[in-house]
């Protein structure tokens, strides 16, 4: 009899009370019945205090219901019980931040990412810890309302989140080989479904803007730096010394998310190389990278439509900067990438 019971137990035919509670908890959690689920997970943990998944679920419910200290206790217990469990580390990071302990939050988040470099929410979380303040879309909206550009050209529109920020009075052109516009766009906006290289080869930008230069541009297309470099060269020809060029993803979060080939959902590519090359080969430009989440917003001023330096040296420059390893940034990432505070008053002062 005892032998049969043990055999069933090991074959999982007999479930322990803690397991029964756990399964009921998961079911209730999935159905959105958080209070019921919490009861079940508490039952699981009474029967099996070392049940890591129950700690994670219980911690997750505490996070969702604003019980941050209790959440942290669950995740910290989980971290001790199973140091390889990324959920415990990431849950602890979120709880720490809610409790105002940003450094502890960063440490837990980095541990989670070391275990699972592709953990998407952890990337966004770390980016918002690094760069508090307005998100890049809010910063772009401020550029539009402050500069009131007559013309705006955006490379890489995707769903239209950023081009939708163009004002009604602005003539806007968006370029993207695969636009998936879901946002309402201002009446003066047109979208071209093509790559930026093809667009510039086939269109006269100034003519499309009724003879006006580009007042404001945003480069956010292909995330390999030579594409962004060509976009820069092609756009600058249609700018004036008073135009502003914005470039997304200039301040990478990590080596992993800055690879040239996309390996993570959160991906900034190697646009950082463009910042280094502009600073080296175009010292006449004002190049700053605003510290806005997720990965910095380059702001280039003092543009010169007659400059041919980048075009003439294109192959050599691309080779030179392609040869750089990400570790060059170790020397002084903020200094090398010209990091600028995400403070609109200070940004505005540069726009005079
Ligand atoms: C990160 S998304 C743009 C996001 C958008 N600017 C925003 O802030 O919401 C990048 C977009 O670049 C587009 N893209 C990729 N290669 C491109 C190219 N060669 N020229 C123009 N756009 C490109 C992709 O199709 C994608 O929609």
Per CATH, the superfamily of the largest domain is: Vaccinia Virus protein VP39
β-sheet strand percentage: 5-15%
What is the residue-averaged pLDDT? 94
Strand order of the largest sheet: 3-2-1-4-5-7-6-8
C-alpha-based Rg, rounded: 26 Å
> Could you give the distance between the termini?
87 Å
For the record, the count of structural domains works out to 2
Based on DSSP secondary structure assignment, what is the total number of beta strands?
Answer: 8
* Chemical compounds bound to the protein: S-adenosylmethionine
- Spans of at least 5 consecutive residues whose pLDDT stays below 50 are none
Précis, in short:
With 352 residues, the protein is α/β, with parallel strands linked by helices.
Describe the structure.
It is a single chain. With 352 residues, the protein is α/β, with parallel strands linked by helices. The chain folds into 2 domains: 16-116, Serine Threonine Protein Phosphatase 5, Tetratricopeptide repeat (Alpha Horseshoe), CATH 1.25.40.10; 136-350, 3-Layer(aba) Sandwich (Rossmann fold). The chain is 49% helix and 12% strand. The chain has 17 helices and 8 strands. The chain has helices at 2-10, 17-30, 34-47, 52-64, 68-81, 86-98, 102-115, 120-130, 136-147, 196-202, 205-208, 225-236, 272-281, 309-312, 314-322, 333-336, 344-350, and strands at 151-155, 171-175, 189-192, 214-219, 239-248, 286-290, 297-301, 339-340. It is elongated. Residues 155-158, 161-162, 175-178, 195-196, 220-222, 227 line the site of S-adenosylmethionine. The site of S-adenosylmethionine has 16 residues, from loops.
